[in-house]
């Protein structure tokens, strides 16, 4: 990828096709605009010595920072023909002829020393003692090149991270009524279990005066409460009211199973039986009735639980009995909305 790629991407596809035909690019017919621009960028940069003289490709090579070779003034002067003017003869004068004297024996024994003659081409022009600043076109091309490399690196890092794939999978997993019901039940159950396991002081970390770090108390959940009856009474009351009894009612009073199988006892397909195993509408209605009877009217399951246990469980659930009824209302609305979407 070169700095000329943004220029190619800014053109229309017919212009890119014209460039491909002029430069004999092979197998470009199935390329889209982006792939054709990348292929042309590589093809033109690799063959810059061939296509740089094309006037239609001059803008690309200007972005690339490549200029067509031009003759310097020194070369022009060296290649210029030197015209020798003829010697004018004046009348009445004879040209002087030099009589070459024969060299003496001493002079002939000495080697002849020839002085090198300087030609105009061997004369070097003095170099400038200062650095010539870069042109704005070269600076812009360098900035475009660095920006393209940075953008390509960020795109590759984003693609390799897999964030989009994971986010899509999480969205697909949460976009169901079962996921919503599971989240609501987990919120209620975590609040109940957290209240049943009180934190017990275990030890203190020593203070570090050098970094002004005070003592830190280390607390752990008291698991010994699991041997008490209060723990199991509270956990059983919440589980029966919010999970077990509503599931039993949703399995026996199953309107979705009737709609999916037509009331036949034989399972037709595995998908239909799996979808209609528990009726979410019956589950939420049964849970709302149980929550109201137990935590509002203090119905204690035929004297199995005390009023203290009922009040304790009601106090630790988020929003108390109103929060549980709100969760059932969300489940009912979600069930009806899902049924409308399935029918449409």
UniProtKB/TrEMBL annotation:
Keywords: Membrane, Transmembrane, Transmembrane helix
Organism field: Penicillium atrosanguineum
Cited PANTHER family: GLUTATHIONE TRANSFERASE 3 (PTHR41807:SF1)
The protein's name: Uncharacterized protein
Chain segments annotated as transmembrane: 231-260
Region named Disordered: 69-128
Gene Ontology cellular-component terms listed: membrane
InterPro entries: Put_GTT3
């Amino acid at each position: 990828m070169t700095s000329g790629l943004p220029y190619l991407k800014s053109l229309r596809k017919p212009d890119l096709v014209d460039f491909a035909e002029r430069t004999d690019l092979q197998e470009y017919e199935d390329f889209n605009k982006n792939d054709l621009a990348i292929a042309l960028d590589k093809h033109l940069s690799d063959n810059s010595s061939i296509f740089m003289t094309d006037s239609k490709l001059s803008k690309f090579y200007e972005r690339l920072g490549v200029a067509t070779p031009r003759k310097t003034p020194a070369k022009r002067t060296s290649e210029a023909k030197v015209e020798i003017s003829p010697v004018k003869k004046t009348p009445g004068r004879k040209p002087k002829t030099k009589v070459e004297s024969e060299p003496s024996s001493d002079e002939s024994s000495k080697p002849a020393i020839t002085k090198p003659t300087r030609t105009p081409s061997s004369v070097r022009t003095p170099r400038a003692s200062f650095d010539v600043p870069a042109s704005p076109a070269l600076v812009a091309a360098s900035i475009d090149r660095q920006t393209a490399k940075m953008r390509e690196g960020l795109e590759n890092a984003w693609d390799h991270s897999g964030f989009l794939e994971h986010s899509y999978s999480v969205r697909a997993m949460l976009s169901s009524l079962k996921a919503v019901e599971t989240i609501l039940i987990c919120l209620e159950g975590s609040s109940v279990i957290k209240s049943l396991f009180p934190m017990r002081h275990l030890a203190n970390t020593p203070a570090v005066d050098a970094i002004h770090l005070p003592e830190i108390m280390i607390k752990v959940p008291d698991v010994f409460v699991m041997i008490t009856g209060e723990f199991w009474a509270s956990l059983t009351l919440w589980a029966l009211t919010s999970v077990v009894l509503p599931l039993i009612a949703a399995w026996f009073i199953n309107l979705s199973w009737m709609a999916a199988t037509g009331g036949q006892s034989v399972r037709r397909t595995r998908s239909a039986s799996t979808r209609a195993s528990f009726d979410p509408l019956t589950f939420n209605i049964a849970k709302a009735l149980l929550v109201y009877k137990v935590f509002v009217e203090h119905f204690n399951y035929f004297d199995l639980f005390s009023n203290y246990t009922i009040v304790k469980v009601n106090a630790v659930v988020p929003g108390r009995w109103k929060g549980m009824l709100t969760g059932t209302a969300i489940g009912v609305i979600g069930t009806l909305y899902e049924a409308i979407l399935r029918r449409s």
